[in-house]
Amino acid sequence: MPNQKWRKNVKLVYRGIVILFIMENILNLPAFAQVERKENIFLTFGAGARAHSLSSAFVSIADDYSAAMWNPGGMAFINRLCFGAMHSNLALNRRFNFASMAFPMYRGFKMGLSWKGFNIGNIPARAGNTLEADYYFHGNEQSIGITFSQKLFTLLGLGLNVNYYDQSLNNEKATGFGLDAGLMLNLFSRWKVGLAFYDFKSRVEWSTGQRDIFKKIGRLGISYQITHGALIALAADDKNQYSAGIEVNVLESFLLRSGWRDNKLAVGLGFVIPLKNLQLNINYAVSNDQIDSELHHLLDFSLSYYPKYRIDEKVVRISTAFLNVRKGPGIYYKKIGAVRYGQKFRIISKKANWVKIKIDGKTSGWVNRVYVEFLRN
Fold first, then answer.
1. Domain count, the chain
2. I need a labelling partner for 45 at 20 to 30 A (CA). Which of 59, 89, 205, 335 fits?
3. What is the DSSP string of 147-184?
4. DSSP character for 31?
5. Residue 298 and residue 319 share a domain
6. Helix (H, G, I), strand (E, B) or coil at 94
């Protein structure tokens, strides 16, 4: 049996690598190599304070409410209903907002809804070469997306975003559609590989008759869960841009993060507040603005809802790379061991957001339900 399981995992890894190779090489085809006219403003700023702290390397993590923005394939591994929102005020009268929701459906199928909005105000309009503006106008861009994500073979997640764009500038308007695709592959317990393609076939058409085609961007990343409380990630874009990020649980409920991209550093912190059947996350990030190099501040919050325990749920499967087992139902109880991704354990009892599991014949302990998947047998 162990040999059969090992062979099965090797086959799954091989299939995932083949899919990654095929998707990565799509970008090199002539149809995808053409020079496009417009860069998607939402990809420039990103979404989610946690993701922003970790830079573009978040493509290989994508495990929270912002997964649809970074890698829709990562949503396949989200095992709870979650909602989050972000706000950022930028220099030059710019504002960026983001909200997203992910919810499990059935048999590994997940759906998501997201909204992104960018606004810039007080843009001067001049008919000639004068110091004084004739008048001022505003620019708005927003996008509404639906995400479909499916988990395959336990280790592989595939996802697709269908985006609707609505833009206005002065008295002109534009609308259009676009697609994003993503793949997430869990490898060897602690390793994850993420691949995403943004703005595939994305374009908007203005009321003037002009058509803007967005630049297609491919991004490949890899992350490694060093311990339950620490991870690192690396990523590369098809534009030869590289990024890296690191996240560390300092006190389990308090996290520090840092990321690097395009010679710019981002730092951030996060708080995790467990509630009954809920978990509240508050995140903050700061970095240099991509345009004027001033400090760019982001603040977000997210809520994760865990449904009430079912009587017929008898077994849990670990859904994170590395999970601490504690003596009691809380983060302040002594650590007595650790379990790994994919392992299954019999449930002994449940209390609030904690589950007591039987590790072996003599040992039992408590794990946080955030990081497990409940099974009926």
1. 2
2. 205
3. EEEEEETTTEEEEEEEEEEEEEETTEEEEEEEEEEEEE
4. H
5. no
6. strand
Q: What does the block give as tokens for 117?
A: 């909005």
Note the pTM of the prediction, 2 decimals. Answer: 0.77
Q: Could you tell me if 320 and 201 lie in one domain?
A: no
Tokens linked to 282: 């508050």
Residue 155 has pLDDT above 60, yes or no: yes
For the stretch 191-242, pLDDT in tens is: 999 999 998 888 899 998 888 898 888 999 999 988 878 899 999 987 778 9
Give the H or E element holding residue 25: helix 2-26
* Residues 167-171: contacts with CB under 8 Å, at least 24 apart: 167/139, 167/140, 167/141, 167/142, 167/204, 167/206, 168/138, 168/139, 168/140, 169/137, 169/139, 169/140, 170/123, 170/125, 170/137, 170/139, 171/137
Instruction: Decide: 150 and 50 in contact? Cβ < 8 Å.
Output: no
Q: Note the pLDDT tens digit of each residue in 294-338.
A: 788 899 999 998 776 665 568 888 877 778 899 998 877 888 988
Distance between CA atoms of 323 and 189, rounded to whole angstroms?
11
Q: Which residues contact 196 (CB under 8 A, 6 or more apart)?
A: 59, 70, 71, 72, 73, 180, 181, 182, 183, 218, 219
Do residue 76 and residue 143 come from a single domain? yes
DSSP character at residue 131: S
